[in-house]
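Hi all, long-time lurker, first post. I run a small reading group and we've been trying to get comfortable going from sequence to structure in the token notation. Rather than ask abstract questions, I figured I'd post a concrete chain and ask someone more experienced to write out its structure so we can walk through it together at our next meeting. Sequence below, copied exactly:
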Amino acid sequence: MKENYIGKSAEFDSSIDNDASLKIEMSPVHTKKLVVKKKNVVKTSNGWQFVDSSVDLSANEYATVTLTRGSGGNELEFSSIANYEGQQSPVEMEIAPGNYAADINLILNQRIVIPEKQQCVRKGIFGDKECFTVPKIDFGEKSAPGQERFPEGGLKLNFTINPGDLSKDTIVLYAVSIDFAGVPESQRTVEDIEQMGKIEEYSRIYQMALQPAFD
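-- Answer (accepted) --
Happy to help. Here is the structure in token form:
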């Protein structure tokens, strides 16, 4: 197989009496610059809302990117992995034309704490009010400063890279970021944790706003 091409498998009769030849067209692999930006889901008075405005990653954020190319026809499987750190230069990533599944994990190295709170519920319509304490949740309790690895967000998205896209030098991918850090600690609640499990849902609902860009 040629270097920097995606191979194909094909059946071929190589018997001595056979003069036939086999021509296989392979897809070239290109090395491009990769930049990861984020689009925030922010907490408002009306709940958590997606904001369709891209933001650069900060110095304490990084993303692990895996692009898996669909192996249509007889083409061999191809995937590419890269790590992108906020406020750093673009990294290199190998890509080829085709249909892709993107999987991004966005990590925040910052201590995120949900404070202890007292909640009260009423038993039945006319029952007494019962109060209890929801304990504090400290996601970075056992981590050294700068190594908290809070799972801030990510991306689960299918998209297509066309040959014309690869005439550009840089691919920009957008991750969904649950903006816990932007919520004052006193306003965080245990119910907010549910947002961490909605990355795939946000990726699906806002897939058009999360399509990659080529610069």
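A couple of things your group might point at:
The chain has one domain: 27-214.
The chain is about 5% helix and 45% strand.
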